[in-house]
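Comment on the following before class.
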Amino acid sequence: MTPMQTLLDILRKFTPADLSACSEQTHLRRDLGLDSLQIAALAGEAEEAFGVEISDADAAEAVTVGDFLRLVAPQEK
C-alpha cells in the first residue's frame, strides 16, 4: 500500500467527502471539511499508521493532503 492509499484510508474515518478524486492538492478544510480537531486526530492516526511523530504545530500548519504526506514520508521506514 502506498503512503497516499494509507492516508486516504485514514481520511475516510474523518470525512464523508468522496475521496476518489483526492490528490496532494486537496485542501483538508475547504475540500474535505475537516476542522482543527479532526486534523489533530488525523495526525494521531497517521503517527500510528506510519510509525512517525507529528508535532501539533506541524499538524496545525498542514493545509493539503500533500502537506500531510510530506510530514510522514520523509520519516517513513
Remarks:
- The helical segments are 3-11, 36-50, 56-61, 65-72.
- The radius of gyration is 11 Å.
- The chain is about 50% helix and 0% strand.
- Residues 36-50 form the longest helix (15 residues).
